Amino acid sequence: MSTPRIRRLPLECAPQPGEGFDGWLQRVSYLTCAFPADLLKHLNVTTGQQHLPGVTLHAVARELWTNLADATGTQPDDWAATINGPSVYAARVGQPSKPLAAFMGFRKASRFCPACLKESGGVWLWVWSVGWHLVCPIHNTLLTEGCPKCGGRHAPQRTPRHVVPGPPDTCQRPACAHETLGPATPRCGHSLTSATAPPAPAALVTLTRHLLPLTDPTTPADKITAAQRLLPAFAGLSHAAANTPLSDPNGDARSRKLHRISVAAAAALGDPDAFTRLAAPNNKRRCQPTPCHWTHVPEHLVEKAVTQRQPHLTTYDKMRWTCYIPPTRTPANNTDAVMRLVETLPGMLWPEWALRLIPDDFEMSDQSARLHACTLLTLPGWIGTTKQLVAAWPRPDVTAATTTRMLRLLNAHPRGAQCLQALSHLAQYLRDNPCPINYERRRQRLGSITIPTDLWLAWCEHSETPAGTGRKRLLAEQWVTRTLTVQPPGDEASGLDPQINTFARTMPEALRIHLQAHAQTLMDVDGLRDEPMTWTPPPDAVPQDLWCGPDPATLIAETQPGSDPIASVRQANLLIEIGLLLDVPPPYSRRPKHITEAVLLDFMTSEGVNVREAAAKFGVNRKTITDRCHRHALPIRPAGRVARPVDPDLLRDLYLNEHLTIREIAEQTGISPTNVAVRLRHQAVPLRPRGGASHRNHRAADGLPKELAQALTGQAGMQRVQRFQHVAAAPSINQAAKRLGISQATLTQQIHRIERAVGGPILNRNARNNQPHTLTPLGTRLLRQANRALGDPVCEEGPLPIMSTKM
Fold it and tell me: Any residues with CB less than 8 A from the CB of 90 and at least 6 apart, and which?
């Protein structure tokens, strides 16, 4: 049985020269208003995947070209360039090396020429997705990257198969919407033909025309060979982003080859900056400071390449190549050089410089940021990876992942570049002016400082301060260790950092002098007499315009009386560590309350309050009040409520004779409603059931006419009578229900409830249609009583006209 012939499409859908199959499928699906999947099913065509360098495109087997030709009125051979064009180009180029793959291979998103899209009616050329194709040789303009409105990039091969695509000359990027993104998400829809395309350099246009034969399957072999020689040279220059030839072309073979590549590409590309702006940002792989195939390159050429690549380098590479303090220098520091610098670096950044350089709103904790800031000081000139750098200076809280996170957070921070530039200046200053303290030797010899018990007791007695428990002496030991080594507490004292700051702030001056003398004694014993106890780089080590925070001296001046307080807890803790904020408490701390024995005794005895009320009065916690009372032997009122005497006869009279509610009795007698109910139950008083009619309606019936009192009996009695007033003013129950905003059945049930309560009908419902109902004599009497006692009925639309009560 022969295969049925494919019916021809009703529109002109022949493939255009240079058009890819994915672009043709999107364009025809839009013209026929069909899903791409349904269109392929109609053509009896299945697509396969072409795995090309950098991208995966769709293709159709050769035996199915006949179906495409029958549907479009073309010949099967006319589809060879459309379907096999990308694979032929990939075979001619081969598998390029990594430095050149981004420019010789395909891109996941396609550039485009706005003028070509407008003239061809939305035909997307597959050559626009090739890395080196940057200009339109027809209009001599640079290709455009994305949509001028939203910046979205077009990729015909990623068109959804079960959605009718939009016009091919408009942006198909999903628009911002509150709904979840999916096939039905609205698209941007902005016209791509309105994008502006700047004119291209003449040399770049010429080079593109020389390389276009690689994309034409019918090109002769001699032209293909010439283009194949030119493409690697052009890609090599674009990867280096520099066109300066070598000064000595007569060097070794490798240098002469590099010279020929540079000269050949420079002759073809007249404006390297224009190419860098277009090609470099689209390189998805990590951009290296210099090409990996560059060896024995002069320093001035390397510096120019790094300078041009700087906007596209990672923050890690910028620090290594000292891009933040030009001129850039080739990294040459190995592990030995880093260890020599580490010997003069503290465990974490000095508090003075942490206050100046690290932004106050940085996401990492202050201790972690200071730890990693010291790691970044060793980064300029480093030749290895982050993992190797961390291994050269092992610390428990610093890993390659946390160091990378520090760089990423600084790169995203508004003042991150300023902080990195300041750290680079500080690192350069420490290399030119080494620190006089060997911190590594201190960390080894003074890693754990202990204070003898007899000395500690003597110091505390001399400074007139309590010796406290063992924790206070531990805080003193950690404070001396931090002063000498500038590093966070060890594992045995983890979590004591806030308490160390509190100890340093409240420590008497006499005790501080004893601890500093003890630290100097330990240094003399360990042979560190030649070093100062503390040291920090001077303020002029980094230009002041690069500081991300205030100067400590300026900040402490602002904390004097009559000025603004410290901005944050972090600044207060750093000033305490520096030793400038000793008498002024940080913003999160409260001064201890001075409560005398006489004041506390008078308040606790005369007022008759408990511990909770006294704590709220003096602004302290309950434990403080309890300790003061025990210390001064003051009486403490037992916990719980004080029983208030209430006359039982008064309760019975208010509940049974006055008909007050339990809550009203509680408010009048000053006891809780639960206590009122318990006392009434103990007196064998029957309690009324809860509900809307248990109290208020029962008392409201006193003094009212008999019929109205009976109608008000029961829960929601007042509501039923008021609705009866509305029914009496309306011609029918249905209209009254609409006016009240309730259903007719509900209103009818309430009328029946009133009739059962008063003992007879109150409405005469007319059997004839469109005739208003009338009131019975009983209903007329009830209405008059309700109008006198409750007033006229009122609803949202205003007062209702009351029906005449005359029969």
Answer: 52, 53, 105, 106
pLDDT at 278: 40
DSSP bridge pairs for 95? none
Of the CATH numbers 3.40.50.1820, 2.40.37.20, 1.10.10.10, 3.30.420.10, which one belongs to the domain with range 699-799?
A: 1.10.10.10
Helices (H) and strands (E) in the chain — how many of each? 37, 8
Best CA proximity match to 736, nearest among 676, 677, 801? 801
pLDDT digits (tens, 9 = 90+) for 75-92: 888 888 888 888 888 888
State the Cα–Cα distance between residues 472 and 457, nearest whole angstrom.
11
Which residues, other chains included, contact 660 with Cβ-Cβ below 8 Å and sequence gap of 6+?
Answer: 654, 668, 695
The DSSP call for residue 154 is B
The mean of the pLDDT values for the chain is: 77
Residue 245 has pLDDT above 50, yes or no: no
Backbone phi, then psi, for 56, in 5-degree steps? -120, 120
CB 365 within 8 A of CB 354: no
Q: What is the pTM of this model?
A: 0.44
Helix (H) or strand (E) holding 227: helix 221-240
Q: Cβ–Cβ contacts within 10 Å for residue 700, how many? A: 19
Which tens digit of pLDDT belongs to each residue from 398-442? Answer: 999 999 999 999 988 999 999 999 999 999 999 999 899 988 888
Distance CA 573, CA 577 (A): 6
